Structure to design on (199 residues):
């Protein structure tokens, strides 16, 4: 599901970028099972490209592929990052439930608050597990179902409401697809952060 205009404003806001760089990325770094510097990374739901930039600059990726369901966001990411990273970054319009790459391609996948937008989020986890190498990591920041169903979220944002996940549901779905969730998951302002490693 594409973002509505309110959430588009939120995710494209410079304050949002500051928070991603100075707070969220630090939390994910603390949770990493191991460094994936020099590896291949996939960003699921790239937005305007902040996560791509973090994959290169903060996590040391050698190459990054990224996609978003919204063509406008992909254009924003290209305009913002293309001249800086060139052929090291591949961008396309796409859907996390059908990732058009071969199996076992990536050392890490970044889910920066994307899967809660997807009606069939379990299919997205299946695809993420498929494209990760053994030992590869899914880094996730997600919104629990009770927050999505809250009155203020429903007023401001558009999300699927059926079968939304709580952290335990998300972790169980990862485990069912061979992604072992590290026990050091963290909650921050109602969001949950974690890392799952492909077995």
């Amino acid at each position: 599901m594409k973002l509505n205009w309110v959430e588009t404003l939120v995710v494209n806001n410079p304050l949002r970028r500051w928070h991603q760089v100075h707070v969220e990325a630090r939390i994910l770094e603390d949770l990493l099972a191991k460094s994936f510097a020099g590896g291949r990374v996939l960003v699921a739901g790239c937005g305007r490209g902040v996560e791509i930039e973090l994959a290169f600059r903060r996590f040391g990726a050698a190459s990054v592929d990224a996609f978003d369901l919204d063509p406008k966001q992909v254009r924003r990411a290209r305009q913002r990052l293309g001249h800086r990273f060139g052929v090291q970054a591949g961008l396309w319009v796409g859907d996390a439930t059908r990732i058009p790459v071969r199996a076992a391609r990536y050392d890490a996948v970044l889910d920066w608050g994307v899967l809660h937008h997807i009606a069939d989020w379990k299919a997205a986890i299946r695809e993420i597990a498929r494209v990760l190498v053994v030992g590869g990591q899914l880094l996730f920041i997600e919104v629990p179902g009770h927050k999505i169903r809250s009155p203020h979220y429903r007023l401001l944002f558009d999300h699927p409401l059926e079968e939304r996940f709580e952290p335990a549901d998300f972790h169980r779905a990862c485990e069912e697809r061979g992604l072992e969730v590290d026990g050091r998951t963290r909650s921050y302002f109602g969001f949950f952060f974690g890392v799952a490693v492909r077995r």
